Amino acid sequence: MRRLMVFILWLIVALAALVIVVGFFAAIGRVDRGDLSEVVVSPEIADSALNKVAQFGVVSARARASGASQPVQISFSDAEISSLISDWGRQSDWWGSIERLEVWFGPDVIVLTGELMSLGLNFDFRLDLELAIEQSERRVAIRRVQVGDIHAPGFITTALLELVTRTVDAGLPRIPMRIESLVLGDGELIVSGAAIP
């Protein structure tokens, strides 16, 4: 019995040491953004993004009113998407908030960067996601998950991808659109499909 207790205590100490070391390198490291262009967000770009969202809202309302799907195509620049999500990231929840939340679009790639503020610590992060939808068939892969100086190993990115895929397949987030194609280019996202009632 004594050996079991000593073993359990050593496991607890080893786990605590691992958490401290990982937390240290995650908190002090910085993510390399050298391969990304600067995203400049201005009030005009924010207004443009909100206007596009409002235009989609009109098409969506028309689809609900008629009871029939309405064709729709919407495009956003990476600066417009960054302006839309930056305020969302700054909202302080029990776990913290996200500062400097930015998005870059490249050919079939979305790069999301920011700084997670939690428990009085700042964690710089980067997520590179490969995404394309053609003829309603989704292709998605995680290329990179990095927090500070720590790159997530393959089994973690696989589990994260499976969690995201199951969440999307379950209908979350619920958007009133059937997406038939999603194309990512240099600095631009184009989504085509139908607004559903």
Give me the secondary-structure category.
Answer: alpha+beta
First CA to last CA: what distance? 64 Å
Which of globular, elongated, flat, extended, rod-shaped describes the shape? elongated
Mean pLDDT: 87
The level of helicity is 40-55%
So how many helices?
4
Write structural notes for this entry.
With 197 residues, the protein is α+β, with helices and mostly antiparallel strands. It has one domain. Helices cover 41% and strands 37% of the residues. It is built from four helices and eight strands; from the N terminus they run ααβαβββββαββ. A five-stranded antiparallel sheet has the order 2-3-4-5-6. A three-stranded antiparallel sheet has the order 1-8-7. Strand 3 and strand 4 form a beta hairpin. Helix 2 packs across helix 3. The protein is elongated and about 75 Å long. The mean pLDDT is 87.
